[in-house]
Design a protein that fits this description.
nine-stranded mixed beta sheet; four-stranded mixed beta sheet; 11 helices; binds adenosine-5'-diphosphate; binds magnesium ion
Length: 311
């Protein structure tokens, strides 16, 4: 009997989002934001939080520093029902990571101080715990610097125990798209990139070729297309699902991670691809309707009303 529907090993930190800054930031000036939000960040943790909010049993392995940001981030996961018994508090002076996001009209700056994000190592992982699940998800591959070299071994072991595997690489801060990724892709069952990431990973400049190349390596490729929704490709089978039409978009922070959570929540229940995509888009839309990646999911009354009205 598995303890979890999904286990995740990855980064756990907060996002500090400053809204309403000028498009250009001149040096040496006092620049005023109109609003701020300190909220749960990090792709791995947002996926875990939102999967649990959608009713999945989730186990999360990570490490944080012995500072209040680590406590707040861990509490957010616990409050959503995520099992945090394998979140380690590291001693010493390593700080919990932090991401500062500066959204503008059409783009955003994302500034990350990695701290404990780079400190997660194989010795922090309990294989029995991670394997007690139907599915394992890995996010932000390029930020998992302490784990990267061991990911193929980790995934091989989890697959041998019968788990299915999904991965969302997110961006590569070095923009090299290497770091052993080619050894990892053949071990992944579901790859969840956005459009840019799909082209970067496959080293081509159009989406169609990117999808063709990726589906040669990964059985199921799901590409997130922002306000265009998402497309899922499994061999010759292809499904597109439109995004929801929203009156107001607050910010796209965590939309891709929320999509992952929606998609996977249906996948682990054995739903068909169309249903997985629909839930992914619904969860992505819910995320962009409120600040950050988890605020709309934390508010259960709001979340349930949104699903009733939009589903
Ligand atoms: N403006 C929007 N309106 C409705 N849904 C959206 C919007 N932007 C994003 N989404 C939803 O969130 C998902 C992920 O967004 P996207 O920006 O493609 O991913 P990422 O955050 O990884 O770059 C989309 O596939 C879609 O379902
Ligand atoms: Mg993403």
């Amino acid at each position: 009997m598995n303890s979890f529907d999904v286990t995740i090993a990855g980064e756990l930190n907060l996002d500090l989002i400053l809204y309403g800054l000028p498009e250009v930031l001149p040096p040496e000036r006092e620049l005023l934001a109109s609003k701020m939000m300190l909220t749960l960040g990090s792709s791995s943790a947002i996926v875990a939080h939102n999967l649990a909010s959608l009713g999945c049993k989730v186990g999360f392995s990570s490490c944080v520093g012995s500072d209040s940001f680590g406590v707040i981030a861990t509490d957010r996961l616990r409050e959503a029902g995520v099992d945090v018994s394998t979140v380690h508090c590291l001693g010493g002076d390593v700080k919990t990571g932090l991401t500062v996001i500066l959204p503008r009209e059409k783009w955003r700056n994302i500034l990350t101080c990695p701290g404990t994000i780079f400190a997660l190592k194989p010795e922090h992982l309990d294989m029995e715990y991670l394997a007690s699940s139907r599915h394992f998800h890995l996010s932000s591959y390029f930020l998992q610097r302490g784990l990267q070299a061991h990911v193929p071994e980790l995934l091989r072991e989890l697959k041998s125990k019968g788990l299915t595997i999904s991965m969302d690489t997110n961006d590569d801060p070095d923009d090299l798209w290497e770091s052993g990724l080619q050894k990892v892709l053949p071990l992944v069952d579901i790859l969840l990139p956005n459009e840019r990431e799909a082209m970067k990973i496959s080293r081509c400049d159009n989406l169609e070729t990117a999808i063709a190349r990726l589906t040669e390596m990964v059985p199921l490729v799901v590409v997130k297309l922002g306000a265009q929704g998402a497309v899922a490709c499994r061999g010759a089978e292809r499904h597109h699902s439109a995004a929801l039409n929203l009156d107001a978009v607050v910010d796209p922070v965590g939309a891709g991670d929320s999509f992952d959570a929606g998609f996977l929540s249906e996948y682990v229940r054995g739903a068909d691809l169309a249903a997985c995509l629909r839930k992914g888009n619904l969860a992505g839309a819910l995320s962009v309707s409120r600040p950050g990646g988890t605020e709309a999911f934390r508010d259960s009354a709001y979340r349930e009303r949104f699903f009733r009205e939009k589903a």
